[in-house]
Amino acid sequence: MEVHLNVNFKEMTDSELRAYVKEHRSDDEAIRELFVNRRSPDETATWYSFPHNAEGIKQGEEVIRQRVQQSKAKQ
User: Fold this and answer.
1) Which of 11, 41, 65, 72 is a good FRET partner for 21, with 20 to 30 A between their CA atoms?
2) Per residue in 38-49, pLDDT tens?
3) Is residue 8 over pLDDT 70?
């Protein structure tokens, strides 16, 4: 584990932190900040809860069809 002096990962931009990690590949704290603390879920994702049976599969397929059509309409 590498010791870093006077390095504040919270104040670094993502680009700066990536560059730092490339130069200090054994700095576990920097790696943790980049890959764990800054990882965020996709805010635009839509989660569906369909039953795990044939009807749920049909519902899922219909939602996918609708989303594909919406996406094509936007283009």
Assistant:
1) 41
2) 876 666 677 888
3) yes
Q: Indicate the pTM of the whole model.
A: 0.49
Other beta carbons within 10 Å of 30: 21
Q: How many CB atoms lie within 10 A of CB 27?
A: 19
Q: Is 17 exposed, middle or buried (0-12, 13-18, 19+ CB in 10 A)?
A: buried
User: Residue 28: what residue type?
Assistant: D
**Alpha carbon of 27 to those of 32, 52, 61, 72: distances in Å?**
9, 44, 45, 45
Tell me, what's the pLDDT at 18? 94
Copy the structure tokens of residue 54. Answer: 């044939």
Under 8 Å CB-to-CB from 18, ≥6 apart: which residues? 34
